[in-house]
Write a structure and sequence with these properties.
294 residues, four-stranded antiparallel sheet, disordered N terminus
Length: 294
């Protein structure tokens, strides 16, 4: 019995390539569902609108799949994108004051692997690059571990609820339905994470409360809309105990003194429940066409 018919049906179901064009691919639909999971919004009585997106690792993966689908990338190209995503975090600069500088793989290498590393020695540099690449491959391999859904809360001890042991938020504010032009010059310093016990945590970055200087609002007052980012190290005052764990029930993001409301609160209930991807592997148009014409 030929497998061509069943295989074609399977591919059609997976990639949505054999039915009417809805204008949105299966991975774009999943990303939209994930966005609803990680996004919260609040419109105050004064008309100011706040939208906060919790940038989890699962959401970053969903976005990578959506982009790969739109650009018609191959599975190998998608996995290369995911590797670059991981590289962007392990190579990034982190504040030393809150201890997250240990996230940088170069610092980890100096501490745990080779304290005498000589960056001017080409052989030692190749060894470091090999060690670093092996780490990234392991992380991407955990994404594709068949024992687990691709989109999930935990991948390893540093990825999952967090982006490499930090709780990352992108926050959008606009006053399109308000006559107010609130003060926003220090909005990052007035944004706090609150855990179940009511403990408040301030953001930490390389530019005060902001991850980098370019996240700082360019104006002192809001006239239109802005997006700013804040990072919270996922650790309490002892620098060991995580703020959010797989046992957490909820957490809240609070913005103080924005407009006419003393505090604006956005809450996420835990655990975050992600939808399933239609498949782990991208099937190209050529693969679907090959099956269809056999």
């Amino acid at each position: 019995m030929s497998m061509r018919g069943p295989l074609l049906v399977l591919l059609c179901a997976l990639v949505g390539a054999c039915g009417p064009d809805t204008g949105q691919g299966p991975f774009a639909k999943v990303e939209e569902k994930v966005w609803r999971v990680v996004n919260r919004n609040h419109r105050g009585e004064d008309g100011l609108y706040v939208q906060a997106t919790f940038r989890t690792f699962a959401y970053e993966i969903a976005q990578a799949y959506k982009a790969a689908e739109a650009e018609e990338l191959s599975q190998e190209q998608l996995q290369s994108r995911l590797q670059q995503l991981v590289y962007s975090f392990v190579d990034a600069s982190y504040p030393a004051t809150d201890g997250t500088d240990i996230n940088n793989l170069y610092i980890q290498y100096l501490i745990y692997a080779n304290p005498n590393f000589d960056p001017t020695n080409k052989l030692e540099v190749r060894l470091f690059n090999s060690w670093r690449a092996q780490f990234v491959r392991r992380v991407v391999g955990k994404i594709y571990d068949i024992k687990y859904p691709v989109l999930r809360n935990n991948y390893d001890e540093r990825w999952g609820l967090t982006l490499y042991s930090r709780l990352v938020f992108a926050i959008h504010i606009d006053n399109k339905q308000s006559d107010l032009k609130p003060h926003i010059a220090d909005i990052g310093a007035r944004t706090f994470l609150v855990d179940e016990e009511g403990t408040r945590y301030a953001p930490s970055g390389l530019a005060g409360p902001y991850p980098y200087e370019y996240h700082r609002p360019e104006t002192d007052v809001l006239d239109g809309e802005i997006v700013y980012w804040v990072f919270f190290p996922n650790r309490k005052a002892d620098r060991k105990t995580p703020i959010l764990t797989s046992e957490s029930k909820f957490f809240t993001l609070e913005i103080e003194g924005l407009g006419e409301e003393p505090v604006r609160s956005l809450q996420w209930n835990m655990p975050l429940v992600y939808p399933k991807l239609p498949q782990r592997r991208l099937y190209s148009e050529a693969e679907v066409e090959e099956v269809a014409t056999e």
